[in-house]
Design goal:
It is built from 29 helices and 31 strands. By secondary structure, the protein is an alpha/beta fold. The structure holds nicotinamide-adenine-dinucleotide and manganese (II) ion (MN).
Length: about 800
């Protein structure tokens, strides 16, 4: 095409970026080795694999294929480096992270070109989005390294972290993983995706340039079945951070269950893009282009479901098709294209298959009139209308440039449609009515909500999923907690004693506040008028039932179980709960979800009231503890006091555990809201029958969750005695449900249940493993004790921000401003 032709047609001419420098760099280094201990190392079995350029389908570079022997070597290197790196001053780590950020910027163009060549994404995107965000991520986390000691007191790095990333944002996902890990003092073994290893290898070279101590970052290229799986199972790895598909995430959850490894999962999505009739449609059209055609639609949070208010649907679809007609697909290095190549032939086939399914399902497919280039892996922007919400293309993540459109009439219908998915990664809301947008945003089940914008990312604002989109956040202060744990956890002895009777060591620990000396003179005298009667009256049987939906309910089984004192004397009976009772309790807990919408003031009031009513009956509760555990009265009384104090703490926190306003570098703010998770299943420890129960139930409900609690099977009566306390404290029915019975069996039912959103398990190591494994079904969040005892009396262990964090999930609502 010559200039005259261009002038005549007003068409774009090609504006190619040169691949020469990138190709020279590849030629100089290939075949690439593995990066272990800051050295390039040949793979143990001598195997190499090829990475291709999907825009040409030609080979690009040969890289090492690691196997489990290489994983062993890399983990050993990271383990050794951890000893030193974890003890460095925050300032030292800040200096390294800062240096990495500077070097990223210095090599920005080479990184951008390499990324485009290897992945097929457009150079405009790698140059203007991926690489700048990578640098920003390292700068931002240099700051957290500097501030760790003052801002995260009492926390320590986790250890060696295994990190597994996908191909869609190769270097950006690396940055999201490595920056917080190093900032918090961990060391890393990272596996790039099979199709896109090159920028990670250039990054390794940058590690050498900045002189990062050997072993702090190790990078292993290769196949998932060789490297990924070995890393996940490696006993020397303390945490796995994974971004990828929900299916693989599920496997990893199962594989790490019970290992004590920390886990964060950033998984797939099917995110709604909601357009109300008062939105500015020109902006909406550009928003849609960004939502679903950015990165060829290979974006976990892509706005792949367009939900349009019915009265403007025709107008919007018409405008959108006109815009699609003008999109350009082509070589990733051409600056005049909008959409690049699909990453691999396999991914292309999968997109084609799902599009065919959409056609077969009866939806109406539309594509622009022009044809895609044929020498690489390309797919045109595609729009489906007339889609019904239950069909495959409306539910399954396509991970390609394919948009499905549906209509709604009212805001509540929009919310229902938006939440009609198992995922919960992101959502985008378009309306010129900010009241409407901010009313809808909190109702959407998604970790990120963009108001009148889409696909905005920044290091300051946490990113991550609700529901089957995974758990954990990357970015923001919230993301740091994925790479630390409370320091006391390292120093607590493991208690796997089967009966779980509290050990003397714990009883001797000082109380949280004050000592509570109780002796015979202060009202705790035995006095039974009955023994004066000629014939003793039979005691009135008070076998507590279950507590479901605010009512005392008989167990479905019709059976009761005995409760024994430490001398094996029967002291009472409780209901033998079963699967059906748990299901009823979960249903009641769901029905009580209005609790989350109660004002925080109101939730605080009710917690105070519970504390007040418990205090009135303190003596009776203390006796009950003595009866069940054989402990001293004074000691039992102090457990009751500690429980009352704990209720006060969470009443206090109910209206004070606030969100944050992040300050990303744009005209606008990100509101990081701490939202309840939903229905939480809880099993209580055997130590401290009352305090263990209150310490878990109180923070969960204070944050707006509803709970199904299984009390200590050994000493359940302290929890069942609370029924009347709850009934007299204005606690709405269904907020706390209690099912007594066999902890392990009931925990299994809760962990398997798809309508339970999180599971807190306190019990045994084996039980922890079973709960983590079962949780993979609906990817519920878990919090387990791995059989390690916790000192419930100690404020740091029994009551802390850890409980509040486990009871909440963070939603980042992006609100840009300015005309
Ligand atoms: P994938 O799950 O197939 O692979 C992701 C990574 O895991 C790759 O490095 C792969 O080699 C590795 N892997 C595969 N099987 C493994 C196993 N059994 N054990 C250990 N590691 C294994 O996903 P993908 O196709 O590379 O990426 C696309 C998916 O990633 C999409 O579903 C997308 O939604 C998701 N994604 C999510 C986010 C997020 O932040 N939530 C970001 C990007 C992509
Ligand atoms: Mn490639």
């Amino acid at each position: 095409m010559n200039v005259m032709d261009i002038f005549e047609t007003m068409d774009y001419g090609p504006a190619p970026e040169s691949p020469n420098l990138a190709q020279a760099w590849i030629a100089e280094h290939q075949p690439f080795g593995l990066f272990i201990n800051n050295r390039w190392t040949a793979p143990a079995n001598g195997q190499y694999i090829e990475s291709i350029n999907p825009a040409t389908s030609k080979p690009l570079a040969r890289v090492a294929a690691a196997t489990s022997a290489d994983v062993d070597a890399a983990v050993a290197a990271a383990r050794a480096a951890f000893e030193m790196w974890s003890k460095t001053a925050g300032h030292t780590r800040a200096r390294y992270l800062y240096a990495i950020a500077r070097h990223i910027q210095k090599h920005a163009r080479l990184l951008a070109v390499l990324e485009s060549l290897d992945n097929g994404k457009s150079i405009r995107e790698t140059r203007d989005i991926d690489i700048p965000l990578v640098a920003r991520h390292f700068y931002y986390h240099a700051g957290w390294a500097q501030l760790m000691a003052s801002e995260l007191p009492g926390y320590e790095p986790v250890g060696v972290v295994g990190q597994i990333i996908p191909w869609n944002f190769p270097l950006l996902m690396l940055a999201w993983k490595i920056a917080p890990a190093l900032a918090m003092g961990n060391t890393v073994v990272l596996k790039p995706a099979r199709y896109t290893p090159l920028t990670a290898l250039k990054f390794a070279e940058i590690m050498q340039e900045v002189g990062l101590p050997p072993g702090v970052v190790n990078i292993l290229t290769g196949e998932a079945s060789q490297v990924g799986e070995a890393l996940v199972r490696h006993p020397g790895v303390n945490k796995i951070a994974f971004t990828g598909s929900t299916e693989v995430g599920r496997n990893i959850r199962r594989a790490t269950a019970g290992s004590g490894k920390k886990l964060s999962l950033e998984l797939g999505g099917k995110s709604p893009f909601i357009v109300f009739d008062d939105a500015d449609l020109d902006s909406v059209v550009e928003g849609i282009v960004d939502a679903i055609w950015f990165n060829q639609g290979q974006v976990c949070c892509a706005g792949s479901r367009l939900l349009v208010q019915e009265n403007i649907a025709d107008r919007l679809i018409h405008k959108l098709r006109e815009r699609m007609e003008k999109l350009r697909v082509g070589d990733s290095l051409d600056k005049a294209i909008d959409i690049g190549a699909i990453v691999s032939p396999g991914q292309l086939k999968e997109i084609q298959r799902l599009v065919q399914t959409g056609v077969d399902e009866g939806a109406e497919m539309w594509q622009p009139s022009w044809a895609c280039p044929t020498d690489g892996y390309f797919f045109p922007p595609t729009l489906f209308t007339n889609v019904s919400p239950a069909t495959t293309i409306a539910q399954v993540e396509i991970f390609g440039p394919v948009l499905v459109a549906m209509t709604f009439r009212t805001p509540s219908e929009a919310v229902a449609l938006a939440n009609n998915t198992r995922y919960g990664l992101a959502a985008s809301v378009w309306s010129d009515n900010i009241n409407l947008a901010l009313d809808v945003a909190p109702k959407l089940k998604a970790g990120s909500v963009w108001v009148n914008c889409t696909n905005l990312f920044d290091a300051s604002s946490g990113f991550g999923g609700y529901r089957e989109s995974g758990f954990g956040r990357e970015g923001g202060k919230e993301g740091l907690y994925e790479y630390v744990h409370p320091a006391w956890g390292n120093h607590t002895a493991v208690d796997t004693s089967a009966n779980g009777h509290v050990t003397a060591q714990f009883l001797e620990l000082p109380l949280t506040d004050g000592d509570h000396d109780l002796d015979d003179d202060n009202g705790y005298n035995e006095a039974t008028p009955y023994d004066k009667l000629a014939a003793p009256l039979p005691t009135i049987d008070r076998t507590p039932k279950l507590f479901i939906g605010g009512k005392q309910a008989r167990p479905d089984s019709g059976y009761s179980r005995f409760v024994y004192d430490p001398a094996q004397q029967v002291i009472g009976e409780v209901g033998e709960g079963n699967r059906k009772d748990i299901r009823n309790a979960v249903e009641s807990a769901h029905a009580a979800s209005g609790w989350a919408a109660n004002s925080t003031h109101n939730r605080a009031q009710i917690l105070f009231y519970i504390a007040e009513n418990l205090a009135i009956r303190a003596e009776e509760f203390a006796r009950r503890i003595v009866e069940q555990t054989g402990r001293e009265m004074a000691d039992a009384a102090s457990e009751v006091e500690a429980s009352i104090s704990r209720l006060f703490s969470y009443a206090a926190w109910a209206d004070k555990y606030e969100g944050t306003v992040h300050r990303p570098p744009l005209r606008g703010v990100t509101l990081a809201m701490k939202e309840p998770i939903g229905v939480i299943g809880i099993t209580c420890p055997d130590e401290y029958p009352l305090l263990g129960f209150i310490s878990l139930a109180a923070p969960a409900i204070a944050m707006g969750n509803t709970v199904v609690v299984v009390p200590s099977p050994q000493s359940p009566l302290s929890a069942t005695d609370c029924y009347q306390v709850f009934e007299t404290s204005d606690l709405p029915g269904g907020v706390v449900n209690i099912v007594t019975g066999d902890r392990e069996m009931l925990a299994q039912v809760l962990a398997d249940h798809d309508d339970v959103d999180a599971m807190w398990y306190f019990g045994t190591a084996e039980g922890s493993q079973r709960v983590e494994f079962a949780s993979a079904g609906n990817m519920k969040r878990t919090w387990v004790d791995s059989g390690r005892a916790r000192n419930w009396l100690d404020a740091a262990q029994g009551e802390s921000a850890e409980f509040l964090r486990e009871a909440t999930q963070i939603k980042n609502i992006w609100v840009p401003y300015g005309e």
